[in-house]
Amino acid sequence: MNKIRVLCVDDSALMRQLMTEIINGFPDMEVVATAPDPLVARELIKKLNPAVLTLDVEMPRMDGLDFLEKLMRLRPMPVVMVSSLTGRGSEITLRALELGAIDFVTKPQSGLRDGMLAYSESIAEKIRTAARARLPKRQGGSAPAVLNVPLLSSEKLIAIGASTGGTEAIRHVLEPLPATSPALLITQHMPPGFTRSFAERLNKLCQITVKEAEDGERILPGHAYIAPGARHMELARSGANYQVRLHDGPPVNRHRPSVDVLFKSVAQYAGRNAVGVILTGMGNDGAAGLLAMRNAGAYTLAQDEASCVVFGMPREAIAMGGSNEVVPLHQMSQRMMTQISAGQALRI
């Protein structure tokens, strides 16, 4: 078996040691070298040709972002960022994903010993995913043109689910949407703290208002609601209005928030008034929920393999029969709006 060759870049000797112990503890991967900064890493990449790089966000001599930007331009390779849980750490990590990093892990917290096995498994899974992932293409140029969409009933809404590669995919879907867009509910697998930074980042880029969802708030057109990290988000009704419901139920498909939890609630309360979208991601979360939406009369879309960083979640949804249509990422916004505007006429 060919092991996944990993280079770990971190200015902390303790973190380099910890990552080495974790990665070398799995039979299918190995740390071929560690580097205290990007300048040393650059020479080791040339010499050792690793399959995956783990890269600290904040380092001396050269910032992790500067190094990542140069790396993706000159020698693209799969990178997993190692991020702190600070606000600054989450903002930098989101920028790293925009620059082409596949995924990120957070640095362990003090007192993690009880959860070290789960933490180790998470790192290994992200490295395996990165080794198989399709490197995202950098999108240059100006912001996309805003779509022209007629004013729609407040009954209409869109539900989106994503995981690995999803932060950028969601940005590409939301940026062209006009302020008259129907409401969107979005579950992206992401830890607490990062979802708020993610929502704030999108809010600055989009015509619609993007925010981290709050329990009990009314769902309004022209708004996108991001499920907070570590909380499930569901659609609920309060009289004639849609409402956000957040809860701390057990993980579903190993995730909280879970895409299935969102999609099944949308199937129940919105039915044919909804469009469901499943984007890039590892695993099968959202497949059963998308099928439930389709069975309830919603029109459902899955991102195509060629434009996914990881085709796992869309593949599972397609295989289960949950998607009406398979769509490239660059066409997703337009297809969503076409279907939400068409009502029942184009439903199959």
Automatic annotation (TrEMBL):
- Enzyme Commission number(s): 3.1.1.61, 3.5.1.44
- Posttranslational modification, per the record? Phosphorylated by CheA. Phosphorylation of the N-terminal regulatory domain activates the methylesterase activity.
Specify the Response regulatory domain's residue ranges.
5-122
Catalytic site = 163, 189, 285
Q: Where in the cell is it found?
A: Cytoplasm
The signal peptide, as residue positions, is none
- Keyword Phosphoprotein present in the record's keywords: the answer is yes
Which cellular component, as a GO term, is one annotated location? Answer: cytoplasm
* Entry note about domains: Contains a C-terminal catalytic domain, and an N-terminal region which modulates catalytic activity.
Q: Please report the name of this protein according to its UniProt entry.
A: Protein-glutamate methylesterase/protein-glutamine glutaminase
The species is Sodalis ligni
Please name the taxonomic classification of the source.
Answer: Bacteria, Pseudomonadati, Pseudomonadota, Gammaproteobacteria, Enterobacterales
